[in-house]
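Quick bug: Trk system potassium uptake protein output formatted oddly.
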Amino acid sequence: MHPATIVKILGLLLMLFSLLGNLPPLLVSLIYSDGSAAAFLYSIGILFSTGLMLWLITSSQHKELSNRDGFMVVTLFWAVLGTAGCLPLLFSPATELSLTDAVFESISGLTTTGATVISGLDELPESILFYRQLLQWLGGMGIIVLAVALLPMLGIGGMQLYRAESPGPVKDTKLVPRLAETAKSLWLIYLTLTLICALAYWAVGMSLFDAVSHSFSTVAIGGFSTHDSSLAYFDSPLVESIAIVFMVIAGINFALHFFAFQKKQFRHYLHDPEFKFYAFILCSVSIVTVLVLTFNGTYDSFWEALRRGVFQVVSFATTTGFATADFNSWPLFLPYVLLYAAIIGACAGSTGGGMKVIRILLIFKQGFREVQRLIHPRAVIPIKLGKKVMSDRVVESVWGFFAVYVMAFMVMLLALLATGLDIITAFSAVGACINNLGPGLSGVAETYGALPGPAKWILCLAMLLGRLEVFTLLVLFTPMFWKR
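Here's what came back:
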């Protein structure tokens, strides 16, 4: 490894984060005169000077990154910047958060999890509310992609970072010949979707502040809101419809958006196996949910059941975490159906969390192949995605991911139970955090503020594991990683 180069990159990222993360809310604070400007000024000073110092002491380093360096930088990026993001929340007198709560809120924002320890959002300063939303927007695509676009100009290659950011099966490993151009194209699509979403929210009655703030968390599939009651605050079918559309779009592989943007055609969506399975999951779970809500008389009419059911299914299945209904009290198995939909998650290459639809699809295909082999033991039965045959190496990596995911889930579940939580709260909290969903069931259906401190630190680890898709973080704990 090259420690000096890693420190240099970390310094650059800290300087970048100090400006991107704190200047916009500082401007909001000055516009609204909400008294929180000092918190952001202190944060800029501390983070920028720290980053500058790290960069200056390693500025002479120009070595190319190895794969191991890439994994280290990506992990440090999320862990260090997630922790550094707590500073405005600590410095602001309006939040009154402990260090544990401030770090939890910051990591939850940057990883687009959307789990919050704060209640009384409606009373907070606009700049703090905007900062929480901005954290999710920056984390949604990942500041790392922006850094990949900039690092080549500084003489540092970025391909290793991009590879470490997206482990596992990816259909399109390189969208354009140069990675920097890819990153810029993805950011352009991301910005465009955010702008259109904000204008749509504004057009149907949201204030400009709420429209911009909620467009950040919608396109980032984050789920933070500027109100305690989330999108239920607006009680508007139009607002909910816009949210559904953009949550579904943000949950699709951005490679598909790239080709739609580049070729000005949409047929390739319908030919993509992952997209078709993603649409099937959303539709089938929505139908089951609406039918159960209707026949159990949960709502007064079918249309109300349709409105609440479809919104909540899309919100959970894409791992956004917005709420317009008390899903925790829904009848029968529905709360657990929503949680399992979040475990499946959105598409690979999207801003969503979960295990990713492509992995679940490959697991299903592998399971079906094993059944066929029982009937025809000597048959050679390939696994295909569309017309492309998947290598056994890809299938093995998916099963390896699934095994490690389940083991990590169980270890953290036992750790939460050891802190005194009940089984439903512990299970849903781990599921919500490792899948970057946010709201859970029972004691964490609304906020995580009542959890004991050790439980919050465990869930911070779960959020990082989910954002890094497990392997990127766990590989650092293997002896082989540190051998020369």
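Actually, after a second look the formatting is fine. The chain has 22 helices and two strands. Closing.
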